[in-house]
Each structure stands twice: as C-alpha cells, then as structure tokens.
Amino acid sequence: MFILNSKQISEADKATISINNISSIDLMEHAATQCFNWLHSRLQGQGIKIHVFCGIGNNGGDGLVIARHLYQHGYNVSCYIVNFSDKRTDEFLINYNRLKELGEWPPIIKSEKDFPKVAFEDIVIDAIFGNGLTREPEGFTKKLIQYINHTRVFTLAIDFPSGLFSDESVIDTGAVIKAGHTLTFQTPKLAFLLPENKDFVNTWEVIDIGLDENFIKNLNPKSHYITKNEIIPIYKSRNKWSHKGTYGHSLIIGGSFGKIGAVTLATRAALKIGSGLVSAYLPKCGYNILQISVPEAMVEVDNDAALEYYNFKTKATIIGIGPGMGTVEKTALGFELFIKENKLPLVIDADAINLLSINKSLLKYLPKNTVLTPHPKELERLIGSWKNDFEKLEKITDFSKDHNVIVVLKGAHTIIINEDNKYINSTGNPALATAGSGDVLTGLITGLIAQGYEPINAAILGVYLHGKTADLALQETSYETFTASSILDYLSDAILDIFKQDMDQEKIEDDEEVEDGN
Ligand SMILES: NC(=O)C1=CN([C@@H]2O[C@H](COP(=O)(O)OP(=O)(O)OC[C@H]3O[C@@H](n4cnc5c(N)ncnc54)[C@H](O)[C@@H]3O)[C@@H](O)[C@H]2O)[C@@H](O)CC1
Ligand SMILES: [K+]
After folding, report:
1. Reading across the β-sheet that carries 249-253, which strands appear in turn?
2. If you ran DSSP here, which 8-state letter would residue 160 be given?
C-alpha cells in the first residue's frame, strides 16, 4: 500500500474529481459515510453521548456528514463548529446547510467559554483539522484540543488526529489530539508509523475512499506500507526440479564465549526459512553447542573464545555476520581485514554494525545492496543522533545513498530504507521485544538472499514474516512466553498465512452498510 504525503493526497483528491467525474461533495459524502458506518456497526444504536467537533474546512465537512447520519439514526449526538477562521469551504457550507435542514443547528465555538461539557464515558469525534493543517493549532483551538485530551474521553479522529502533520514533526506536543482510534482516508500517513507520535496515534485503519489508483501509481510514491498484498508478489514458490543447491548456501559468522546462542539462533533461522545449505563460522568454544543445537548445519571454527582470523573455507552464496560477535580488539582487527577482502553479499547485524561505527572507513568496502539491521542505538552509533523521527529517516536515506546499502531499522514498525524508497512493516507486536529476536531476523534475511531473493525483497519479506509469527502466536500464547525460538516455531504458519484470505476482509465484503446519503 502506498503512503502518500500531504501534497500527493491533495493532488489525488483533485485528480479523482476531474478524471472520474465525481464532485467533491460526493467524494466527501462517500468518505464520511464510511466513517459513520464504522461507528454504527460498533455502537448498534446505543444511547452513549457523541460529541462531533467540526472545523471549518473539509475535515469539518466530514464531521458534519457523520453528525447528520448519527442524528438520522437516532443517536444522542451534539455537533459543534470550531470556528478558528471564517474561510469556510464550499463542502463545509453545503453540509452545514444539510444539517440545518434537519432542524439541527450546531453551536459555534469561538472561545473557551463555549466549550461543551464532555464526560469520560462519552465519545468525541475529532473533525477539526485534517490534511489541510498548515501550522500548529493555537488560541482557543489549541485549548479545545487540550480540553478534549484532558477528559481522557475516547476520541475517534477523522483522517488525522487534529494537529498532526502527515510528513513533518509536531513541535508543540500540547496541540495535538490524542486519538483512541483514527479512520484515515485512502492511505496510511507516515506520521502514524513513527515512534515520536505514539501519544497521538493509537490504533488506526484506512478507509478506501476510491481515489484514482492509476493517478496515485503515476505519482510514483516512495513510501510503502507492507501488508500481505505487497508480500504475495515477492514470495517465490519452489520449482519441482529444484535441489538443495538451488536454494543457496548461507554462512552465519558470529558468536563469542557466552554468546554462542546468538549465532545458533541466526543459523537455525537461515535453515528454517529455506536456505539450501547453512554453515556457521564461530569461535572454537561454540563448536559442540552449535553442532548439537543445529544438526543440519555445518560448522567451521576460528580461535578459542572470540573471532580473530575469519579464515573459513565455506563457499557461501551470502554471509550474515554479527550476532554475538563482540567487539574485542582481535575480533575488530580480523573484521577489518575480512571486510576489505570480502566480495560476497552481506547482511550485517549487531556487533558487526558497531565495528563499522567504530571504523567508518570500512563502509566503502561493503558490496552494493549490503543489508544492515540496526536497532535505534546501533543506528545512532552509525549515523549520529537526530532531532526527530523525520530527520532520522532523512539521515538514513542519505546514508543508504552514500554507501549503496539497505538499512533495516528495527522498531515497532520496522522501516526498510533503500535510497529514496521506504518500506514500513505492518506486522509484529511487543512479544518480539525479547532476547535473540534480532539474531533470528538476521538469519531469516540471510537465508532468503541465499535462495535468490533480491536483498531488498529479502529484507521486506524477512521483516514481514518475523513480525507475523508474533501476531499469529498471540492468538494462542502470551506476550511474555514468546521467545526468539518461538519465532521459528511459528515461521511455517506465517508463510502459509501469506495465501490465506483475512477474516477482516471477508467480514467487510459480507457487511451490509448504509449507502451514501441515507
Ligand atoms: N474532496 C475532498 O477534498 C475530500 C476531502 N476530505 C477531507 O478534507 C480534509 C482536508 O480538508 P481541507 O483541505 O479543507 O483542510 P482541513 O479541514 O484539514 O483544514 C481546514 C483549513 O484550516 C486552515 N488551517 C490550517 N492549519 C490551521 C491552524 N493551525 N489554525 C487555523 N487554521 C488552520 C487551512 O487553511 C485549512 O484549509 C481531509 O483531511 C479530509 O478529512 C474528505 O472528505 C475526502 C474528500
Ligand atoms: K481530524
């Protein structure tokens, strides 16, 4: 799914109106009616108090449509106009009049004294600002946002939590709605996926409002939200005539005394994802551990307790390096020589990233499309600190371009950056915040590249499957008991799930919904 920026959304709105010969007011009716349907299917006519706060632009117009449907369906609703400007849009005015024709005259909020009483057990619909936000809310509008947040009432944001920009950082964090849920139009927004906005964006979903898909594709958006739909075309099915040589040979390099588990997990992961052959190269102290834990793997050894010589004989297709490796001097010196001489594709993780950060002159030796899988702290050592999450993404983009590498920034929404392209993962949950989870990811990406996946596709698929295992596991296990080994236990289910139709999708198709304008 594409992620559009604010300008692209406005362009797609306009293009859809002209290409598809649909009026702006009908587009709004369609979009906002879907929001009403969403709420109606959950509330089923309950008498709970609903407050709809409408700005004076088209986001406010959506709010007025929702309020109209709520009135017409007998809900206990109050609608207000947040009059932060007199420049009301045409679509706002048409829907304002449609509401008045029903005999409902929304009160105007012009200052703090006009704020209505909102109770914790009510529902607020936030239709104050949407994609048209150009500066931070101030004055009584900001006060209203704070007032709503202060009640801790459940807030359903329409398109955006008001005060949040799609593609830049919030500076005044006291001027943004803290939404319980957001129904956003057509595409996810980059801001929803960044950790700095966690207080404003809780859960969200995309409402398809039918913007012109060809037009959107021709905009050539650079940001992508990775869901099952993006994974299906990446997945390579197996050929009947293939043999284990077809699926490559992964070599996992890592480990040190006390950290043999990391390299063991990565090795198991490379095997389990389907690498034809897998070898591990690790300090001698880990030899028995690895051979017993992963009998399918071949093992070569280096010095006794830490890597030093990197003199393996394995003819690998791809090397995954770093898990449990440590950064002692002899390991670092050997790593320098290894990187300078290596010609094979690489996946670089953990301490191998730290060694690159210590000696950045090595970056120029990395083969094109090397995959680096840092967590935020490792990233900071590599590229320096950042002021906010948007600047972080810019810095990673520059780094990716400067060194021709793919960066997999691990987090709640793992972000894969390949030059200007950003791929943001949709799967995963806090169960993955567990020791060894990153080592498994390194093994998965390595094992996929071994099988002939392009490094960027291996990163996208590996990250998606890694997250999906935890999502599937949570249907029958707890966050706490899920461990890195559980990722491998659920890997098969995650792969099979690629080809299952989602229950949600089936449900949407079966649901009876209110038609626009009813
Ligand atoms: N046909 C369309 O264009 C559609 C628009 N839709 C809705 O329209 C929204 C965008 O509407 P608009 O472009 O009218 O903009 P908004 O309704 O988001 O904002 C209203 C206006 O407020 C002004 N403004 C921005 N920041 C401000 C601030 N801090 N203080 C005071 N005033 C400020 C701007 O001039 C802006 O035009 C979308 O988010 C979506 O909800 C949907 O109904 C789908 C169809
Ligand atoms: K809003």
Report:
1. 2-3, 223-226, 421-425, 415-418, 405-409, 370-373, 346-349, 318-321, 249-253, 277-282, 298-301
2. S
Q: How far apart are CA 159 and CA 231, in angstroms?
A: 26
Residues with CB under 5 A from ligand 2 (ion): 126, 157-158, 160, 162
The complex's ipTM works out to 0.98
Q: Please tell me the number of the ligand nearest to residue 189's CA.
A: 1
Q: Tell me the three state secondary structure of residue 408.
A: strand
Q: Distance (Å, rounded) from C-alpha 200 to C-alpha 176?
A: 7
Task: Quote the CA–CA distance of 513 and 217 in Å, as a whole number.
Answer: 29
pLDDT number for residue 515:
67
Q: Name the DSSP class of 387.
A: S
User: How far is residue 161's CA from residue 176's CA, in Å, rounded to a whole number?
Assistant: 7
* Structural contact between residues 455 and 495, judged by C-beta atoms closer than 8 angstroms: no
Crossing angle for the helix pair 24-43 and 58-72, to the nearest 10 degrees: 50
Give residues (CB < 6 A) around ligand 1. Answer: 13, 24, 27-28, 31, 55, 57-62, 84-85, 89, 129-137, 158-159, 185, 209
How far CA 68 is from CA of 32, 99, 165, in Å, comes to 10, 6, 27
pLDDT of residue 518: 44
Can you give the pLDDT at residue 516?
64
Phi and psi of 252, rounded to 5°? -100, 125
The answer to the question of whether 439 is labelled as a binding residue is yes
Structure tokens belonging to residue 262: 């990391």
Q: State the Cα–Cα distance between residues 120 and 48, nearest whole angstrom.
A: 11
- Residue 309 and residue 457 in one domain: yes
CA-nearest residue for atom 15, ligand 1, is 132
Question: Is residue 503 one of the residues assigned to a domain?
Answer: no
Probe target for ligand 1 pocket from 133, 138, 160, 192, with the most ligand atoms within 8 Å of CB:
133
> How many domains does the chain contain in total?
2
How much is the pLDDT for 513? 62
Name which residue sits closest to atom 45 of ligand 1, judged by CA: 28
* Residues 20, 84 within the same domain: yes
In sequence order, the 6+-apart residues with CB closer than 8 A to the CB of 316 are: 249, 250, 251, 279, 344, 450
CATH of residue 165's domain is 3.40.50.10260
The domain in which residue 68 lies consists of: 6-221
- Whether residue 403 lies inside any domain: the answer is yes
Q: What's the pLDDT score for residue 501?
A: 82
How do beta strands 76-82 and 415-418 pair? unpaired
* Low pLDDT (below 50) residues in the chain: 508-510, 518
Residue with CA closest to ligand 1 atom 44: 28
CATH number at residue 250: 3.40.1190.20
pTM over 0.80: yes
Q: Do residues 348 and 321 touch, judged by C-beta distance below 8 A?
A: yes
Q: How far is CA 439 from CA 259, 371, 423, in A?
A: 11, 14, 21
Burial class, 42, CB count within 10 angstroms (exposed 0-12 / middle 13-18 / buried 19+): exposed
474 is in an annotated binding site: no
